[in-house]
Amino acid sequence: MTLLDEPTGALDAASIRCLWRTLADVSREPGRAFVIASGERIANVPLAATIELPLQAEAGFAQVHSGDERA
């Protein structure tokens, strides 16, 4: 398992595309998993699931979405 905290924070657009492409390729290997923490919604990347946490000012619980349910 690889944990990534805001992996795109200091990257330009081309580097972000390269990162997502590399993670998608590596994630196909058996036994590989990535947990990505990001304040931005990650679009155009096939994710198995997402967990959306509410802002501190919002009441409620985290929402979990499977990869097929993301919009």
From TrEMBL:
Q: Specify the protein name.
A: Uncharacterized protein
What organism is listed for this UniProt entry?
Answer: Variovorax rhizosphaerae
